Amino acid sequence: MALSGSLKEFAPADVLQLVGRQRMTGMLAMRRRSRAVDFWFKNGTLAWAQSVSREQRERLGQMLVDAGVISEAQLEAAVEQHVRTKRRLGMVLLVQGIVSAEDIEKFVQLQLRESIYNVFLWRDGTYDFTPRPVPPPEPGAVLDIRWEQLLMEGIRRADEWPRIREVITSPELTFNVTAPLPAPGATPEPTDEDLERAFLAEDGFEDEAVRSEITEHERLLYSLAKPNVSVQQLINRSWLGEFETCSCLARLVRGGYLEARHEGEDVDF
């Protein structure tokens, strides 16, 4: 059956769950402004998914620069050849021997996964399901996200993002280091906010922010945080993705280890 409508009236998670419950086969296209993601289902099970947004493809080069994989000069030369030959930027860099196939695959997959999970944050846009046989996956498509994992992780991110954005208000935000991290294996001292959250939590629930030690990802971002390095650059340099990077940074700020240095204009990122 055909299925289409506005995401203002039917949330992305609800649309995805409906397709799964009805055991539908075909393509579910979700669109919001310049962003677009296609989900291919077979008998209600996610077969593969792909971002078809031009802006996501264009960000690959800058991500590689920010991560220190290539230089600005190498990117400029590759872009010129990309325009001249119409070959994909990643393929140009690969043929030139500037990056490895593994690095390209890792960055492409990271971009695609972020695009797919960000769909759960959309509050407007459109969805359109078209019944059709499932074709072979496009190059670079995401294949190994289990259906249950996709839903659970997407819903979790949608729930946690508002709290993260109370602290990480802009991709242009930068940080000062304000306190040393506890030694590996040590449990950090809880902040006043941690204690308040634990006190207000249900009986018998030990708040994760109180009991958990500093994670490996948080230590990485702490080491990368500098007054001249923005959140967006940290996202690109860490190879952790937008959600994980911002989640870790928010926890480091709330723990008193980092302090926001300046705030750029709030944007939808």
Brief account:
This protein is α+β, with helices and mostly antiparallel strands. The protein is 46% helix and 15% strand. The protein has helices spanning 12-21, 54-66, 72-85, 89-95, 101-118, 147-165, 192-200, 208-211, 216-224, 231-238, 242-254; strands at residues 3-6, 26-32, 35-42, 45-51, 126-131, 174-177, 258-262.
What descriptive keywords fit this protein?
five-stranded antiparallel β-sheet; 7 strands; two-stranded antiparallel ribbon; 11 helices; alpha+beta; 269 residues
Mean pLDDT: 83
From the spread of the alpha carbons, the general shape counts as: globular
Distance between the termini: 34 Å
Largest sheet: 5 strands, antiparallel
User: Whole-number radius of gyration?
Assistant: 21 Å
| Structure classification | alpha+beta
What strand line-up does the widest sheet have?
Answer: 1-5-2-3-4
Series of H and E elements: EHEEEHHHHEHEHHHHHE
Segments where pLDDT lies below 50 for 5+ residues?
201-211, 264-269
Beta-strand percent range: 15-25%
Query: How many helices in DSSP terms?
Result: 11
Fraction in helix: 40-55%
Number of strands: 7
